[in-house]
Amino acid sequence: MVIPIVAYGDPVLRKVAKPIESTYPQLSELLTNMWETMYKANGVGLAAPQIGLPIRIFLVDTSPFAEDEDMKPEDRSKLDGFKKVFINAQMQEEVGEEWVFNEGCLSIPDVREDVKRKETITITYLDENFKEKTETYDGLLARVIQHEYDHIEGVLFTDKLSPLKRRLLKGRLTNISKGKINIDYRMKFSKMKKGR
C-alpha cells in the first residue's frame, strides 16, 4: 500500500525518532508499504518519519544511480542491487574529505541543492530480521545512508545549506508546506491542505 509522504513543515520531520523492538506491530507489512511508497515516488531512500512515523527505520535502494552512464563501472557495480533496511541505526563515524553532491528529498519536492558530506561512514544497525550489523560505506552509498539517517535524527538536507541559500529557498519551502506544488506522488501536508 502506498502511503502519502509527509511534506516539509510537518513537525514529525523534526523529531528525533525512537528505537523499536522486534515486536513492533506489523513490521513486515510496514516495510513492504515503505518500499512500495518509495518506488512509486521514484526515490532511492525513505525514512519512517517521512510517512509520519517517528521511529528509527529507513530503507535504501541505490540501483537507479547505477544506470548513470557517467559513473565509473566499479562505482556502478557497488550501487546496483544495493537494497537494505536499517532499523535503530546509530552512526559510529563519518570521516574523510567533504564532497559536494546535488541532493533532493521526497518530502521537499522540486528542491535540489549541493550538499557537503563526509566521504566515509561506519554505521551500526539491525536488518529486517533484527540481526545487528556494523558496516562501512563510502561515496554515493555513504551519502544516501547519511541523508536517510539524518531523517531519523530530525535533520533535513536543507539544514546543511548556507544561511543565504536557506533564505533564498524560504518561499519555495513555505509553498511546499502549504501544498502549493505539483507532484506526481501522494503527499500529506501539515497545513490541512490535501495532496493528490
How many distinct domains?
1
Shape: globular
* Computed Rg: 16 Å
Question: Secondary-structure element sequence?
Answer: EHEEHEEEHHE
Q: Give the averaged pLDDT, no decimals.
A: 93
Determine the strand fraction and express it as a percent band: 25-35%
Q: How many strand segments?
A: 7
- What structural class should be given to the helix and strand makeup? alpha+beta
CATH level 1 class label: Alpha Beta
Separate helix tally: 4
Please explain how this structure is put together.
The protein is an alpha+beta fold. The protein has one domain (5-188): Peptide deformylase (Peptide Deformylase), CATH 3.90.45. 26% of the residues lie in helices and 31% in strands. The chain is built from four helices and seven strands; from the N terminus they run βαββαβββααβ. The strands form two sheets. It has a five-stranded antiparallel beta sheet with strand order 2-3-4-5-6, sandwiched between helices. A two-stranded parallel ribbon has the order 1-7. A hairpin with a 5-residue loop joins strand 5 (108-126) and strand 6. It is globular and about 40 Å long.
